[in-house]
Amino acid sequence: MVNYTICNCKQVTRFDIEDALQQCHRFEDVEETFREVQAITHCSTGCGGCHSKILDTISEIMSA
Prior knowledge:
The chain has helices spanning about 15-25, 30-40, 50-64; strands at about 5, 10-15.
């Protein structure tokens, strides 16, 4: 898997999202998992333009 920046404001990469998911307690709800990842990485707390990209990435990783 290639690493790339998803959240430009906070410089959060795909690998950062994967690492944050390792710290999450459960993966039942994408929105709840997003909030946990956001608390860990601070992604989507700047301009918010990456919100859907973060959700898509979380969904993709969760379904793999």
